[in-house]
From TrEMBL:
Segments crossing the lipid bilayer: none
Signal peptide region: 1-20
Domain of life per record: Bacteria
SUPFAM superfamilies: Periplasmic binding protein-like II
Keyword line: Signal
Compositionally skewed regions (Low complexity) per UniProt: 38-58
Species name: Candidatus Acetatifactor stercoripullorum
Chain residue ranges for the region called Disordered: 29-58
Name the UniProt record assigns to this protein: Extracellular solute-binding protein
Length: 509
């Protein structure tokens, strides 16, 4: 049977020990040339089959590690605990491998992981960690396993995932698989089905910006409900809108084609944004920027009154049935389950800026590539060195097999899955039917966020512009950005680790 260890009250003890936390948001930093090959793990399964301790080939590869106990640390909400226990019980039944769960509050998790690695007491499997631990030889290389069959369904393991799902599961230099993924991040438009029906808006969510505006007009004129709830205390929420609307408005330009030369990946990164501003390919006077700021100002009349000061409590307005539309992340359905909210809602992709609304708009939506999976389960090199590597890999394969733990997990958390064959819950089923293509987020908005100082000043001016009391026009905001943000470009180029100026001659006019 499953074992569990509940770790609470860790922060004070760890702080007293002088251990600094290390955020899981930093998993993409500090690339190194030092990697650990699969040959050094001592656990990569041979093509001929898995061997038992006695050197005999096991008749059933699923049970080759029977009797082994592996530890799995995570920081997920308590609502998921019972589902994890059910998953591990099924895994143990099939493999004979026991699972010991280590459960931590999310607020303590980063500090705890840092402490375990510092003390050499890290668990076998852990939920997210900075990728530099792989560069330090503390995370197991899974590359050889991904090229072999998932023992639970006979499919090559890396083929069990949707296209691009494992991008974030690679080492910092992009050459090794070092973790696995189960879900991908999305941000969506959530809509209240009861309010839609009550206002005579039909049953289908809006697909275009024009349709969304028309629905919100009806809602505002009715007066009983808030058309849309957002928060702008930080840029997470409104920043998602910025990302997709900028893509829509710049879709038919050659900006990315001209600037994507420093790190070619179909998008603009920070040095390329600097390059664009230096060469004039990105220009604050581009009418598309003014159109974007005008569009966002138009939206504010439909938002909750305190949007500029609201944090995540803005969700409560939607949970309580006071709001027609809510902009939120893919995790929201899981929160509904965890907290028992009684809101009758649906989920849909964000509407696109259409040509009926803007001369720069689209005639049909951009088809984005499926989201890359979020790197979750890593295996410690210590686990491999102590002979439990194969058993730990089996657990990861079970969690990423739809006939195993993958479907059970998605049913519990109600997130989008990056594993083939998994059926999404009804509440988010519309997202599963969304068409995909090869479009990626272009990050044109980095024209205003090319350095920390530029971003800070941009946020200050942008938040003031969006304030309900502001009468500033989009053109006036741009003039202010040219005066306050653009002069920071020279210093940013000078401080950049990339020699931005060496690429100037490569940019075609």
């Amino acid at each position: 049977m499953m074992k569990k260890i509940l770790c609470l009250g860790l922060c004070a003890a760890l702080t007293a020990a002088g251990l600094a936390g290390c955020s899981t948001e930093q998993t993409d930093q500090s690339a190194s040339q030092d990697t650990v090959s699969a040959e050094t793990t001592g656990t990569a399964a041979a093509d001929a089959g898995t061997e038992t301790a006695a050197g005999e080939t096991a008749a059933d590869p699923l049970r080759a590690d029977e009797g082994t106990t592996i530890s799995v640390a995570h920081c997920q909400g308590e609502y998921i605990y019972e589902s994890f226990y059910e998953i591990s019980d099924k895994f143990t039944e099939m493999t004979g491998i026991e699972v010991e769960w280590i459960e931590l509050p999310a607020t303590d998790y980063d500090t705890w992981v840092t402490a375990q690695f510092a003390a050499g007491t890290e668990p076998d499997i852990f939920w997210n960690a900075p990728k530099e631990y792989f560069d330090q030889g503390k995370i197991m290389d899974l590359t050889a396993y991904y090229d072999q069959e998932n023992v639970f369904n006979g499919v090559t393991w890396k083929d069990c995932f949707t296209d691009g799902a494992l991008v974030n599961s690679m080492s910092t230099d992009g050459t090794k698989y070092i973790s696995t993924a189960m879900t991908g991040f999305t941000f969506n438009l959530y809509y209240n089905k009861d309010i839609m029906e009550e206002l005579g808006l039909g049953t289908e969510p809006p697909e275009t910006f024009t349709e969304m505006i028309e629905m919100m007009k009806v809602c505002k004129e009715d007066g009983r409900y808030i058309p849309m709830s957002v928060q702008n205390l930080n840029d997470t929420n409104v920043g998602w809108l910025e990302r997709i609307f900028m893509d829509d408005l710049f879709h038919n330009t050659d900006v990315v084609e001209k600037l994507d030369i420093i790190t070619p990946n179909g998008a603009i990164d920070y040095p390329e944004a600097m390059l664009g501003l230096e060469t004039g390919v990105l220009n604050y006077d581009d009418p598309r920027f003014e159109e974007y700021f005008t569009l966002m100002k138009d939206l504010t009349q439909y938002w909750n009154e305190d949007y500029n000061a609201a944090g995540w409590e803005y969700e409560g307005l939607f949970n309580n049935g006071e709001v027609l539309f809510n902009v939120n992340g893919g995790w929201y359905p899981g929160q509904v389950v965890e907290n028992g909210y009684e809101v009758n809602y649906g989920a849909a992709p964000m509407p696109y800026v259409d040509s009926a609304y803007s001369e720069f708009g689209l005639d049909e939506p951009l088809l984005y590539a499926p989201p890359a999976g979020e790197a979750v389960f890593f295996i410690s090199q210590k686990c491999a060195d102590e002979g439990r590597g194969d058993a730990a890999v089996k657990f990861l394969q079970f969690m990423t097999c739809p006939e195993g733990g993958a479907q059970m997990y998605i049913d519990a958390v109600m997130l989008g899955s990056c594993i083939k064959g998994v059926t999404l819950p009804e509440e988010v089923g519309a997202l599963a039917n969304a068409e995909t293509g090869d479009a990626v987020t272009t990050w044109v908005q980095l024209a205003f966020q090319f350095s920390d100082e530029a971003y800070s000043k941009y946020r200050e001016l942008y938040v003031a512009y969006l304030d309900p009391s502001s009468t500033q026009t989009a053109a006036e905001l741009i003039a202010e950005l040219k005066e306050e943000v653009l002069p920071l470009l020279d210093e940013a180029i000078e401080d950049s680790t990339v020699d931005v100026m060496s690429y100037v001659d490569q940019v075609q006019g």
